[in-house]
Design goal:
The complex is a heterodimer of chains A (517) and B (318).
Chain A: H1 3-7, E1 11-12, E2 19-23, H2 29-38, E3 42-49, E4 61-68, E5 71-78, E6 85-86, H3 96-107, E7 110-111, E8 159-164, E9 176-182, E10 185-192, H4 200-204, H5 212-216, H6 224-239, H7 245-273, H8 277-298, E11 307-308, E12 311-312, H9 318-344, H10 346-352, H11 360-366, H12 370-374, H13 382-385, H14 391-394, H15 406-430, E13 449-455, E14 460-467, E15 473-479, H16 482-492, H17 501-508, H18 513-516
Parallel strand pairs in A: 2-5, 6-7
Antiparallel strand pairs in A: 1-2, 3-4, 4-5, 8-9, 9-10, 11-12, 13-14, 14-15
Helix pairs in contact in A: 6-7, 7-8, 7-15, 7-17, 8-9, 9-15
Chain B: H1 6-37, H2 47-56, H3 68-87, H4 103-123, H5 127-158, H6 163-172, H7 179-195, H8 214-218, H9 223-248, H10 259-286, H11 295-316
Helix pairs in contact in B: 1-3, 1-9, 1-10, 2-9, 3-4, 3-9, 4-5, 5-6, 5-7, 5-11, 6-9, 7-9, 7-11
Chain lengths: 517, 318
């Protein structure tokens, strides 16, 4: 059955504009995913929900969110209680594999995927314990020991492995990378993540729904505004309370400030990783100026807990507005000079161009998303594809490139930085009046599902929020674009040399904390 | 051979002590210049001394499977670098050690240090040590012939392979520019950068373990062993700088044996170090790090320049 026919039956999800939901039977699950893929849809997130604190058999539901040209489509599949496994969709969407493995680790629902290695579960809890469905963990008899993870081995003359991490020589987040190399050439890279797992999905269920935004803001430090906004969007949709126009504009301002700060940091770090320390110091200087302007405007350098249900924590005073718009103008001008240096420096060009190539065809097949995707011809940006207020009015330009190498990712960062500087100036100039915080959000009805979807600096961040009884959270599933992009990094490095990996990795700059949950 | 005078011995001892004491200072100076050129506030000139002192106060941790080679390598490497400092003229040229080791023996000394460094890096059997050792040998086998070629050109000009004799000969001639030396100076600078783990070949400041060359070989060392190796690294940079002075800027070194001459030579030597350190920092700031597989091209270019210098000398006599 073609997608158009069956998806017409999808019901709009109350409170989440542009989002539709449809129930799919188990036997149709994979076919529906195939039809969505054929129509150009992309898998956004996969999660399961069921009443907490009850094991099987329990009525549980599988959710998959897909981005389609008209908007988000949420497929739900109730457990038929007759099968232990649900049909996996990893052959249609390769990045679904890790999501399915993680889903089993936390929710105890196995897919038909033959890869049954744990993903989020390390040795910290027993294999038969699933934190989202079991009340208490069985008390371990002894200290957990590092487990044996079955990495895929590459055999052949002169092939050897290099194991890197999770503890690194610098102070960076934990991740393990297993390279199979011949000489310096990388034949295969396999990642193992989950070291930053801290059980936030379980923690969400213990929080009042009106306070969950504080935890959401702490999931991934560099995307705090994105996550907080996504949570609040889902919550406000559930509660049916629109936010004041000024609040929406202030949130967009915060989001663009976050994007600009991260891009400035990344551009400097990319220069530094290529041995060009001058770039790092110049961009660090600019980033510091931006953070100080942010501090002048809102009283905090990074906007943690700035986005709250109903609006924003702080308002923008005229002096703060001037500081921000002056800073944005200055940044754009300075960055233009630095871009000239980056573009014309022979040594940097040599390092950037052609490194870590992801062709548009590969990117489309693997579902590369966000900023990295836009550098590989995947021209998706929710801010212009499915604009939410105030982006419908702001009409941001979409950056993009098709080369798919480190140089392209640098170029996209520069373009987006300029656009963010323009948007900051525009928002500060045209900020609507009125209040920045709506009073008193009502408690959402039990069992309702709300979706928050925000294009952060790294890519689209989604939060699925299911309300529980009397203002509790039944299930909250945060999804970071890194789930889509980490597997692609394994492909980007193939054929490159080992010492180029840090640069390629930095050009992706994916989340550990936001991914490991 | 004339009897070695007490003053010559004094010069010799002074040379080695100057090298041991001033090497971290030169390192600190390069770091300071780099920081200034990159718009950062600079660490203190004395920072390398402080790190070395800190390391000497720590307890050494050794891998359980480390062999005796792993333990003695730091002493061998430090010793070779100190011995090399004894045969390179820095302040004066009248050195009793000169007849013992000429420029070719010097290259051999430096190679000994490299071999021990690489063996020690592979000893514990971690991936990074082996990775670093492999890359170091790739750099080394290309840099050594280039360095030898540079010394040969200078030897042709001065009819000696002993560095003090070369320095004395070149300094005593009327100031003139040898085109052959100009070519070899370029070659030597490139070798210096490659051998001392500087940008564009290696990055001494990186924390990215996959990109390291020299640092990767030191990852398993701690405390006094690491202190000696870091000190030896500063000494290596100092030695190379002094080789450069002997070959391309021999002016101002003491050629007589009087204490006055030595005293007069010291400030000039200090000034040369200042300029050289600033130059290294400038090159490092202006360039990005090369892809590892570009390093052979870089060093092949250095070799080519050295050969050009030789050809210019042989064919044109210039």
């Amino acid at each position: 059955m073609p997608l158009r026919r069956w998806s017409a039956a999808a019901a709009p999800l109350a409170g989440s504009p542009g989002t539709k939901q449809i129930v799919v039977a188990r036997e149709n699950w994979r076919a529906r995913a195939q039809e969505i893929a054929a129509a150009g849809g992309r898998l956004m997130a996969l999660w399961a929900s069921g009443p907490a604190a009850t094991g099987r058999p329990a009525p549980r539901t599988l959710y998959a969110a897909f981005v389609l040209p008209p908007g988000l489509l949420v497929l739900t599949m109730p457990d038929d209680l007759a099968h232990d496994e649900y049909p996996g969709i990893e052959e249609v969407f390769p990045h679904a594999s890790r999501m399915q493995r993680a889903l089993f680790d936390v929710s105890g629902w196995r897919s038909s995927d033959p890869d049954v290695r744990p993903w989020l579960r390390h040795a910290a809890w027993p294999a038969d314990f699933h934190p989202l469905i079991h009340e208490t963990a069985p008390t371990a008899a002894e200290e957990p020991r590092p487990d044996d993870y079955a990495f895929v081995r590459v055999e052949g003359e002169g092939v050897h492995e290099i194991a890197v991490g999770p503890v690194h020589a610098g102070i960076i987040e934990p991740g393990h990378f297993r390279f199979s190399v011949v000489g310096e050439k990388v034949l295969k890279l396999e990642e193992r993540l989950g070291y930053a797992h801290k059980g936030v999905e379980r923690r969400f269920t213990e929080l009042p729904i009106l306070e969950g935004h504080r935890l959401a803001a702490r999931l991934c430090g560099d995307s705090t505004v994105t996550y907080a906004w996504a949570y609040c969007q889902a919550l406000e949709g559930l509660a049916g309370t629109p936010i004041p126009a000024r609040a929406a504009w202030l949130r967009a301002l915060a989001l663009e400030l976050e994007r600009a700060a991260n891009h400035l940091g990344d551009l400097g770090a990319l220069g530094n990783d290529a041995g060009f320390a001058f770039g790092l110091s110049q961009f660090s200087l600019l980033k510091e100026q931006l953070l100080r302007a942010t501090h002048a405007a809102f009283g905090q350098r990074y906007l943690l807990d700035f986005v709250v249900p109903g609006g924003t924590r702080a308002d923008l005073a005229p002096e703060g507005a001037r500081a921000l718009s002056d800073c944005a103008g200055h940044l754009a001008q300075q960055t233009r000079v630095l871009r000239g240096i980056y573009d014309e420096h022979a040594g940097l060009r040599d390092r950037f161009a052609g490194a870590g190539m992801v062709t548009p065809a590969l990117a489309a097949r693997l579902g590369l998303t966000g900023l990295v995707g836009r550098a590989s011809g995947q021209a998706h940006d929710l801010r212009s594809d499915a604009p939410w207020a105030p982006y419908d009015e702001l009409a941001p330009g979409k950056a993009g490139a098709t080369e798919g190498d480190v140089a392209a990712r640098v170029a996209v960062r520069f373009d987006e930085l300029f656009e963010s500087c323009r948007l900051i100036g525009r928002i500060v100039r045209d900020l609507p009046g009125g209040t920045h915080l709506a009073a008193g959000l009502p408690t959402p009805p039990e069992g309702a599902l709300g979706i928050g979807l925000i294009e952060g600096w790294r890519g689209p961040v989604m939060i699925a929020l299911e309300a529980g009884a009397s203002g509790s959270i039944r299930r909250c599933h945060p999804h970071d674009p890194s789930w889509q992009n980490w597997p692609v990094l394994e492909h980007a490095i193939i054929g490159n040399i080992v010492p180029d990996f840090p640069l390629i990795n930095k050009s992706f700059n994916l989340a550990y904390s936001g991914h490991d949950l | 051979m004339n009897a070695v005078t007490a003053l010559e011995w004094f010069t010799q001892v002074l040379e080695v002590i100057t090298a041991l004491a001033a090497a971290p200072l030169l390192f600190g100076w390069v770091n300071q210049c780099r920081a200034w050129l990159q718009n950062r506030s600079a660490p203190s000139l004395l920072q390398p001394y402080r790190s070395i002192r800190k390391l000497f106060h720590k307890d050494a941790v050794l891998a359980t499977n480390a062999s005796p080679l792993f333990r003695i390598a730091p002493y061998v490497i430090f010793g070779t670098m100190a011995a090399a400092a004894a045969v390179i003229p820095s302040v004066g040229t009248h050195l009793p050690f000169t007849p013992v080791a000429d420029g070719i023996a010097l290259v051999g000394l430096l190679a000994t240090a490299r071999v021990f460094q690489a063996l020690a890096a592979m000893d514990v059997g971690t991936a990074f040590g082996t990775l670093g050792a492999r890359r170091e040998m790739m750099i080394g086998f290309l840099a050594e012939p280039a360095l030898l070629m540079v010394i040969f050109v200078a030897s042709l000009l001065s009819a000696s392979t002993a560095l003090p004799a070369i320095a004395e000969q070149l300094a005593s001639q009327a100031v003139g520019i040898y085109p052959s030396l100009a070519f070899t100076a370029v070659a030597f600078t490139m070798v210096l950068l490659a051998e001392n783990a500087r940008i564009p070949v290696d990055n001494p400041a990186t924390h990215l373990e996959l990109t390291m060359i020299h640092e990767a070989m030191l990852l398993e060392y701690s405390a006094r062993h690491l202190a000696l190796l870091e000190w030896a690294a500063t000494l290596k940079l100092f030695n190379y700088t002094c080789i450069g002075f002997a070959l391309f800027a021999p002016w101002g070194t003491a050629h007589s044996e009087t204490p006055q001459a030595l005293l007069a030579a010291l400030p000039i030597f200090g000034l040369k170090l200042l300029v050289a350190g600033g130059g290294i920092a400038l090159v490092e700031t202006l360039s990005a790090k090369l892809r590892v597989f570009r390093a052979p091209e870089f060093l092949a270019t250095a070799f080519l320049f050295a050969v050009l210098g030789l050809l210019v000398r042989l064919l044109l006599g210039a």
